């Protein structure tokens, strides 16, 4: 598994550090960076290339200070109204593929407001850059889309989910040739490239946009405010892990007792619900609770209603 690049020991933060990723990919002065990456992932050439992109959730440090555990993803819309979602994820959780599916289809559904019709829905593409392997597939780039099982016809124009698993490339990508491989090399080794520009492969030195991205990463690593935000987020994640671990231990103990009476599966669910309930009591965001417990949003909302009734 790729070393966690959020560790304080690391002298430089890479493009897999979510704050650095968000700063680089949402920079309004360099819009060609997300454009280049999207065209590489989608293999768009010539007239099919995405020409313009509107960032729907630009980086705002003040919001990060307010909610230190928020997901720093990137949402964008092209000139045709197509929606794109990009997220980096270093850690491995067994429930992540299901979480990705859930948020992808939520991304599609969220396009409609009251009074609008289904015909106004636009295609949506989600891209997840993963530090570890999640899919039992040989290739590093896997695309999940809609397909007719009988005819084999693919409906890629409606929905696509791309998984880019860096662990499958580590040590196996010495001479990147395609645009996507070069971008993957940047995600893998940008912290190293910031320390030693001479280590950048010659194939990547010719890629003007990627070199701009590496320069922005280097600037972010030398910016004291950015480093402070990263350290603050790292500390918050450690605190959060400690809190949830303690809550989980309490929940498991209660769940074990329930499990003896009602069966192991029910006991496990009770444990997770107890953890979620305690996290709700701490006013943590629902997205954070979903990530920590793997419970469905509807289950957590039911627990929130119970908590509200207790408070009233």
Give structural attributes.
single chain, alpha/beta, 2 domains, disordered N terminus, 49% helix, 11 helices, 312 residues
**What's the total count of β strands?**
6
Structural class: alpha/beta
- Helix % is 40-55%
How much β-strand is present in the residues?
A: 5-15%
Largest sheet: number of strands, sense, barrel closure: 6 strands, mixed
Average pLDDT level: 80
**Could you list the spans in which at least 5 consecutive residues all have pLDDT below 50?**
1-10
Count of folded domains? 2
H-E string: HHEHEEHEEEHHHHHHH
What's the arrangement of secondary structure elements?
Elements: H1 18-25, H2 32-41, E1 53-55, H3 61-66, E2 74-78, E3 83-89, H4 96-109, E4 124-130, E5 141-145, E6 159-165, H5 179-195, H6 202-205, H7 208-222, H8 224-262, H9 264-281, H10 286-293, H11 297-311
Parallel strand pairs: 3-4, 4-6
Antiparallel strand pairs: 1-2, 2-3, 5-6
Helix pairs in contact: 1-7, 5-7, 8-9, 9-10, 9-11
């Amino acid at each position: 598994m790729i070393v966690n690049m959020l560790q304080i020991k690391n002298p430089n933060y890479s493009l897999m550090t979510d704050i650095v990723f968000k700063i680089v990919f949402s920079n309004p002065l360099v819009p060609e960076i997300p454009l280049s990456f999207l065209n590489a992932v989608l293999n768009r050439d010539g007239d099919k290339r995405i020409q313009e992109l509107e960032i729907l959730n630009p980086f705002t440090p003040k919001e990060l200070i307010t909610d230190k555990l928020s997901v720093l993803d990137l949402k964008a819309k092209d000139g045709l109204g197509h929606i794109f979602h990009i997220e980096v994820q270093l850690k491995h959780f067994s429930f992540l593929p299901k979480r990705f599916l859930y948020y992808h289809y939520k991304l599609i559904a969220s396009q409609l407001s009251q009074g609008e019709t289904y015909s106004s829905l636009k295609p949506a593409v989600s891209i997840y850059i993963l530090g570890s392997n999640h899919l039992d597939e040989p290739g590093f780039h896997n695309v999940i889309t809609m397909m007719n099982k009988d005819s084999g016809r693919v409906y890629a124009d409606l929905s696509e989910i791309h998984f880019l698993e860096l662990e499958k490339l580590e040590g196996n990508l010495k001479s990147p040739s395609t645009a996507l491989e070069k971008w993957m090399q940047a995600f893998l080794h940008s912290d190293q490239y910031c320390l030693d520009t001479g280590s950048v492969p010659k194939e990547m030195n010719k890629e003007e946009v990627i070199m701009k991205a590496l320069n922005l990463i280097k600037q972010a690593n030398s910016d004291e405010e950015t480093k402070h935000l990263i350290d603050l987020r790292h500390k918050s994640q450690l605190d959060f892990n400690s809190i949830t671990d303690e809550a989980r231990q309490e929940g498991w103990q209660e769940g074990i007792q329930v499990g003896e009476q009602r069966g192991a599966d029910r006991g496990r669910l009770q444990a997770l619900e107890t953890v979620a309930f305690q996290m709700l009591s701490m006013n943590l965001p629902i997205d954070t609770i979903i990530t920590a417990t793997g419970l469905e949003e509807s289950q957590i909302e039911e627990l929130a209603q119970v908590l509200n009734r207790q408070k009233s």
